[in-house]
Amino acid sequence: LPQAGPGVTPVRVMTVAGSDSGGGAGIQADMRTFAMLGLHACVAVTAVTVQNSTGVTGIQEIDPAVVAAQMHSVVPDIGVCAVKTGMLASDPIITAIAEAATQLGIGGDTGVPLVVDPVCASMHGDPLLASDALGALTERLMPLATVVTPNLDEVRLLTGIDVVDGASQRAAAAALRESGARWALVKGGHLRGSEHSPDILYDGREFLEFPGRRIDTPHDHGAGDTLAAAITGALGHGYRVPDAVAFAKRWVTRGLAAAYPLGAGHGPVNPLW
Ligand code: PLP
């Protein structure tokens, strides 16, 4: 991947996501991966979470108009080659982002690639998306998505499908595609009892399987964010979606293998190593 250099404007990407005060997930995870991939990262903050290694104890949502204004400020001036959404907190914030994305040429069939990581809760179970916001996510944002990257808990919330094996994982990918996302990546990482954790990528024609080595570590905070950020970064660099996913899988596997303990809870994945 080409790196930024003196006097050379690097590829720009944007993350539309929440801040993690503990520095493990959210915007902070995205920025680490983007920096490592030689990208200039722009940010639209959706929420400030009060969070450490043991969980989330507070959330301050950003005014939806301010979320949209951050996008309107950055995109025409700096320009972005790919955009990622993470924690979006509420229906009004999602609605504002979807409107801004449409106006700014982000996502859809002709816009810059849009990776929608449908973050619903932290791994501790702290809600990061209002329960009444799922409709806005599926009806307004997913139709704009180039790729949607749910884990199995998010799949259940978005499609009602309980993924227990490869067949239900494929059915979930097909259901997600029907919400309008061009590609659905159903991550298998939370599939219990399986030695491997294949992710399934589907574009409506072909199911692609990405086998993964399961890394047994309690320090996996921000793994989902890091995977989606690496996909976004690779798309920004011009990769095709399947190649971006293959790259991102390796990226997050390496980050999990190099994860470190932090505080009394779960440490972050460490793609810097
Ligand atoms: N905090 C923020 C701001 C996030 O965006 C996310 C995930 O996207 C999390 C926390 C949860 O991360 P994890 O499930 O790895 O704890």
From TrEMBL:
GO terms for biological process: thiamine biosynthetic process; thiamine diphosphate biosynthetic process. Residues 20-270 form the Pyridoxamine kinase/Phosphomethylpyrimidine kinase domain. Signal peptide: none annotated. InterPro entries: HMP/HMP-P_kinase_dom (IPR004399), PM/HMP-P_kinase-1 (IPR013749), Ribokinase-like (IPR029056). It catalyses: 4-amino-5-hydroxymethyl-2-methylpyrimidine + ATP = 4-amino-2-methyl-5-(phosphooxymethyl)pyrimidine + ADP + H(+); 4-amino-2-methyl-5-(phosphooxymethyl)pyrimidine + ATP = 4-amino-2-methyl-5-(diphosphooxymethyl)pyrimidine + ADP. It comes from the Bacteria. Keywords: ATP-binding, Kinase, Nucleotide-binding, Thiamine biosynthesis, Transferase. GO terms for molecular function: ATP binding; hydroxymethylpyrimidine kinase activity; phosphomethylpyrimidine kinase activity. The keyword Coiled coil does not apply. GO terms for cellular component: cytosol. Catalyzes the phosphorylation of hydroxymethylpyrimidine phosphate (HMP-P) to HMP-PP, and of HMP to HMP-P. This is Phosphomethylpyrimidine kinase. It comes from Gordonia sihwensis NBRC 108236. The lineage of its organism: Bacteria, Bacillati, Actinomycetota, Actinomycetes, Mycobacteriales. The gene is thiD.
